[in-house]
Amino acid sequence: MRTPPRTGLPGLRRYAIPLLVASLAVLAVPAQAVAGPPRTAVEEPEYPPTPGPAPLADTHPALLTITQDAELALRYTYSAVASDPTATYPEGSIEADLRTGLLSLPADRLRPIVDTARTLVASPVETRIEQFGRHGRLPVEEFRRLGFDGAFADVRYDRESLNRTILARAAELEREGWVDDEAAARSALPKLTSLDLRVDKVKCVDETSDWWFEDEIAMGGVAVDHMGKATKVNRWFVGDFDQGDSVNYADPGKLFRRFDLTAAGAWPRSFVATVMLAEEDEGDFAAAIQQAWAKVSAKVQAEIAKAVASATAPYVGAAIAEAIGQVVGWLADKFATWLMGLLDDELFKAGTAFVKLPHRLQPFYVNPQNLGWTNHRLPPTTMTFIGHDGQYKVNLHWQVNL
Fold it and tell me: Are 399 and 378 in contact (CB under 8 A)?
């Protein structure tokens, strides 16, 4: 049953950013860590957690330095825009996207966001450096003039180290697979055409709203293909949730993202998806954050290309694409966590779901003894999305198509 509109009875939690960010790969958290009334019903069995990409700190230390700088610049960008929503920015910029999202919020929700941002950007330089890293040395007026692009342009990192790491990974990928337009193209075996990430079920374990309101949840995110291109996944409305409610999607599940496998490029290929949950009535702010992540990832990819020799070579490109998938997940998680700490809102930490395909040949995706796939599907997994006061679980699976 649909509940009455929320605008007449805003709880204290409504005075923070209403973005609920979630990932397809969230670290398991014990159930007792989530506040809420006692539950007597036996919890449904859940599938194993969804695998995510390797941590940036383990695989690409120099790339982590770039990504950390980009995330700190994004923090200041958000704060600068939120502190003065009347300021205008070039069309298509990260600043313009964030401003559009913020202005779509109801006035009673935007006001405390603006107040918090103004306090932050007007704080002493030492405090700004704690929040924004090196970018905090700039007064907000100067940062607005530069924008994200200008501030991030002179990021410093160990270029030689990044070059060595990407080239070493490219060599590993080359040993594992082949270029699609060579061996795979000549094979007479049937070939795959696409890869899907599909959502099977969304369940509310503990709702985030006050007890008299249902959660009105929408889902969207960012996807990264085998070329490293990050694109926004448009949101859709999932449903109204009280504690214990669930939405089940009929087989084969709700399509989150489809990736084209026929495009040229090297094999193996990696694909990544980052998911966000957001209140349906929260305007376009969640979509603006998705767009910002995608654009920041493109800036990081361009920086890698400047540092890496033969960046357009097939396996070097595949190694860069794999790294960008890690960047998107890291960025989403850190930025959402920062917003949670800043605003004490019921946000969910973000992360990623990752899959790697060794080649396009269909027979290997039928028998689980080969690659773990059964009839073109990987086994389903369960994601647990935990915020300050709420918890959701999502079942999903990867599948390939002829």
Answer: yes
The answer to whether the beta carbons of residues 337 and 329 sit under 8 Å apart is no
Q: Give the pLDDT confidence score for residue 215 in this predicted structure.
A: 85
Torsion sign (Cα): 100, 105, 107, 110: negative
Task: Tell me which residue of 302, 354, 267, 289 sits closest to 56, measured CA to CA.
Answer: 354
Reduced to 3 states, what is the DSSP secondary structure of residue 380? coil
- Copy the structure tokens of residue 129: 């450096």
Q: Report the C-alpha gap between 119 and 137 in whole angstroms.
A: 16
Q: Contact at 8 Å (CB) between 110 and 85?
A: yes
Q: Which residues contact 384 (CB under 8 A, 6 or more apart)?
A: 26, 28, 29, 46, 49, 391, 392, 393
Q: What pLDDT score does 5 carry?
A: 34
**Measured between alpha carbons, how far is 399 from 185 in angstroms, rounded to an integer?**
21
pLDDT in tens, 111-134: 989 999 999 999 999 999 999 999
The 10 Å CB-count burial string (b at 16+, else e) for 196-233 is bbbbbbbbbbbbbbeeebbbbbbbbbbbbbbbbebbbb
* pLDDT value for 184: 60
**CB of 299 closer than 8 Å to CB of 248:** no
pLDDT of residue 347: 61
How far from the centroid of its chain's Cα atoms is residue 180's Cα? 28
Q: In 3-state terms, what secondary structure has residue 335? A: helix
Q: Among residues 129, 168, 289, which one has the least CA distance to residue 218?
A: 289
Half-sphere exposure of residue 327, counting CA atoms within 13 Å on the CB side? 35
Positive or negative CA dihedral for 127, 128, 133, 139?
negative
Question: pTM for the whole thing?
Answer: 0.84
- Give every residue of the chain whose pLDDT is below 50, as ranges: 1-42, 181
| 388, burial (CB in 10 Å: exposed 0-12, middle 13-18, buried 19+) | middle
C-alpha distances in angstroms, 94 versus 74, 101, 145, 298, 338?
9, 11, 13, 11, 18
- Reference 327, options 22, 60, 26; nearest CA is 60
